[in-house]
């Protein structure tokens, strides 16, 4: 059995958990307020899921999903995620996260910041450019005509390969953007952001993305 540690149990974390348990993964999910606040969610998710603290979710994970507001990145235990693939769903909303100059200037990427914080993990971007509700409703089997595609990026080939495999199980094709330094192409407000697109359309949208918006 593969255990996914999900850090963040909001819109995206809960949706990834729903699809993951359907697919037969075990899920350990945590938030900032403590496992007791996730009682309803784990009942809904069923026996494959349990709630834990965020760092316990990291420790229990074969691989992890980090899905919290960017402003709280420093509060995440890097130790609990060391040596693991971490799928990073976060986006930069300066209205929520406060201004981060390096992002405003186009000199950094959100997932690059996550990789810097989680220096002993292998971070891959994933699920940042799909609306939470659509994670469980827009996937289709491999080979479906006009299948929806999602992008990933990582500095670690095994991490992007893991995301591609998970995307396929969730019902999506993958476009690999390459290293995290190129991952701005699928950040907020770029052409590929939260639109339904197939692989060819996604490639076109990534290519025409402006560095700053
Ligand atoms: N909503 C979307 O459709 C969507 C789509 C793509 C990407 N995203 C991005 O994905 C990330 C998550 O979005 P969301 O909509 O799921 O957010 P959300 O609904 O606000 O949920 C955030 C979750 O993160 C948890 N959290 C916050 N700080 C934490 C910490 N220090 N340790 C552990 N857990 C912590 C929160 O726990 P508490 O409630 O206990 O504080 C909550 O469960 C954001 O960066 C967002 O921009 C969102």
TrEMBL record:
InterPro entries: NAD(P)-bd_dom_sf (IPR036291), P5C_Rdtase_cat_N (IPR028939), STEAP_metalloreductase (IPR051267)
Keywords linked to the UniProt accession: Oxidoreductase
UniProt xrefs under Pfam families: F420_oxidored (PF03807)
PANTHER family in the cross-refs: DUDULIN-RELATED
UniProt domain Pyrroline-5-carboxylate reductase catalytic N-terminal: residue ranges: 3-92
UniProt name for this protein: Dinucleotide-binding enzyme
């Amino acid at each position: 059995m593969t255990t996914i540690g999900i850090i963040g149990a909001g819109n995206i974390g809960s949706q990834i958990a729903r699809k993951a348990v359907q697919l037969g993964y075990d899920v350990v999910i945590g938030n900032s307020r403590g496992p007791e606040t996730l009682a309803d969610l784990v009942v809904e998710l069923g026996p494959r899921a349990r709630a834990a603290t965020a760092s316990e979710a990291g420790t229990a994970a074969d691989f992890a999903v980090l899905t919290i507001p960017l402003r709280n990145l420093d509060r995440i235990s890097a130790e609990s995620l060391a040596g693991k693939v971490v799928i990073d769903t976060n986006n930069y909303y300066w209205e929520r996260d406060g201004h981060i100059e390096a992002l405003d200037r186009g000199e950094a990427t959100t997932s690059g910041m996550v990789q810097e914080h989680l220096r002993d993990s292998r971070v891959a971007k994933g699920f940042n450019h799909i609306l939470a509700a659509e994670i469980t409703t827009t996937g289709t089997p491999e080979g479906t005509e006009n299948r929806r595609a999602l992008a990933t990026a990582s500095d670690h080939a095994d991490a992007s390969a893991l995301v591609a495999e998970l995307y396929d199980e969730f019902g999506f094709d993958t476009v690999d953007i390459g290293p995290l330094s190129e991952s701005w192409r699928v950040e907020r407000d770029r052409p590929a952001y939260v639109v339904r697109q197939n692989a060819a359309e996604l490639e076109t949208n990534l290519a025409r993305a402006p560095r700053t918006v």
